[in-house]
Known about the structure:
alpha/beta; two-stranded antiparallel sheet; 21% strand; elongated
Amino acid sequence: MKAPRVTLEQWRTLQAVVDHGGFAQAAEALHRSQSSVSYTVARMQEQLGVPLLEISGRKAVLTDAGGALLRRSRHLLKEASQLEQLAWNMDQGWEAEVQLVVDAAYPAERLASALGAFMPQSQGCRVQLREEVLSGVEECLLNGSADLAISGISIAGYLPQQLNSIEFIAVAHPQHPLQQLNRSLTHSDLETHLQVVIRDSGRRQPRNEGWLGAEHRWTVTSMSTATKLISQGLGFAWLPRHEIAAQLAQGSLKALPLDQGGQRNAYMFLYANKDKPLGPATRILADLIIQHSHDA
């Protein structure tokens, strides 16, 4: 790739001529001589090989090519300015990126609300968001690939910040055989039917959280897949209420009438990487996650 022949300063000069209405006005705005501004634009035209300005009466106006190039140059200068600002932020200790790992059961609405509030304060800091299940979050925290982690399990050696709870409900399709018993269900009733569970994404010590020990078990990798299977009448599962609100309202899912344990409230916790100091962007995002968890 060839090195650019036209500098950012030259594009800035052309913008000033157009925005301020002429060479003299641009020279005053840029604190330069008029001859210097005129030479800069003339040199640009020579380097690019296309006319950028033409004289109409006593005023310099953009050619069609000049207008197209000027529009692109405005984006170029804006990005260059943002790049310099990001470099300054990093010099002040501001992170270029925050690695956020979240349990897949955490409500996307709460997360989106926190990230939406973070965006105008981010100062160019990117967020790398990754979803895991159960111990998969813990592994990311332990191996250092997470700056912040949201998990529903207790992670030894870390100080958790409690977030709001999530309600899990035992559900099946309204026509599922368990629903047709028309009585309160027991643990024994469930053991003889297919249970759908979400696979733990961790590799070191995966958990069978929520599994009853039934002989018939199907394991899937996502909440959405589990919801679709259960909605089609394939087994039963404990699913987060926020994930299945629409299906419950539409009638494709119905809560199982368990005599106990039909509903479970599980708290989520926010953890921070303890092996490196939290930068300002990470702290801001952590505070917003906590705030929007409790506001939800």
